[in-house]
Amino acid sequence: MNHVGTSHDAAGAVHALVRAVLGSELPLRIRCWDGSEAGPPDAAARLVVRRRRALRRLLWAPNELGLARAFVSGDIDVESDFFETLAQLERIIGGQELAVDKMVKRDMVKAGLRLRAFGLPPKPPAEEIRLGGRLHTRRRDSQAISHHYDVGNDFYALVLGPSMTYSCAVWDDKAETLEDAQTAKVDLVCRKLGLHEGMRVLDVGCGWGTFVIHAAREYGAHAVGVTLSQAQADFARKRVAEAGLSDLVEIRVQDYREVGDGPYDAISSIGMAEHVGEAMLPTYARALYDLLRPGGRLLNHAISRKVGVGAHTGGDTFINRYVFPDGELEPVGVMVNAIEQAGFEIRDVEALREHYALTLRAWVANLEANWNDAVRLTSEGRARVWRLYMAACALTFEKGAIGINQVLGVKTAASGASGMPRTRTALLS
């Protein structure tokens, strides 16, 4: 059966339910489990509601978390351009304040009864997590990192490509591929840090080792990378050995608060500070300051939020429950202030927002092109989590709701000498 929905079939009732909430027509085409359809026939976005259970998920959590649970579990699916469909769904469940009066509530109840959508809340998908204990203890931080990064190195290889770099790439004029753009990013960090042969550099949150390998191979630096993920460390050590750089690179499973073998000449933190949390930023910045010699530089590369928008990713959000437990995004001013309060002199800030949107779209393309292998290596639910989160983040960067910045600080000597070049052109040369 394939017809335009009426109030007597599933799609028609869903249409009535959404219309009651939105106060407007459905912005996408919906096909339900009984074959009925509703919404504009020529809509660019097409959503499939495969099971009635999806509606119970949304009734119990009428926000992004309910929608995410329905998608991750396979209760709903997308049969059109994924980015376009997410953009339309955001219009329906976008966190806006809805004026739900008595008439709207009545229509919602009627639609819910016709759909037999009322009942106990379904069990969340297995991929959902809720951590316990005090926030940002070393034990809890380790659990949060493990949840996200210990999904499987082979899975990440499918998504990230050969560079195995899980942070914003830099799409300069020479970058034709994701691999080119990731190489451009790590080289940009090396140049901002002023790396040269014989220097000691610490990479906090080293991931799979891409930056430390580049710093050692291209600049002759002695590099130490620390991560809380055992899977990442194992993979990074293997890459280091295969590159013949074991005499220059050391990989540790270690919290940044436990590093005690300073001083270092330079420190990079690429995509790690989002896990620290605002309350711990002073501790984080001071720990890195204390590990540097006078004249040493810190490059902090982190996602930021606008002032007054979404203070934390915690709570009942898709990101907190499925992707980055306990992650927090801070305005760039908060990050700069924490670094400066620790004693650093801020010398350069660069925004890369559009670059991250391009990077995320490239990761989504990799995942979609290797979908069957991704499901085999993890689970269909986990692959769905990554597709949803990366696509949604790409859209969020594109509309400017969040940004990403590289902040360069220097630990000036007691005399005030910084050792920094006088111009930004010289810094980047």
From TrEMBL:
Origin: domain of life: Bacteria
Query: Sorted alphabetically, which InterPro entries does this protein's record hold?
Result: CFA/CMAS (IPR050723), CMAS (IPR003333), SAM-dependent_MTases_sf (IPR029063)
Q: Name one GO molecular function term.
A: methyltransferase activity
Any one GO BP annotation for this protein:
methylation
Return the Gene3D superfamilies for the record. Answer: Vaccinia Virus protein VP39
Q: Which UniProt keywords apply?
A: Lipid metabolism, Methyltransferase, S-adenosyl-L-methionine, Transferase
CDD domains listed in its UniProt record = AdoMet_MTases
Stated family:
Belongs to the CFA/CMAS family.
For this entry, the protein name equals Class I SAM-dependent methyltransferase
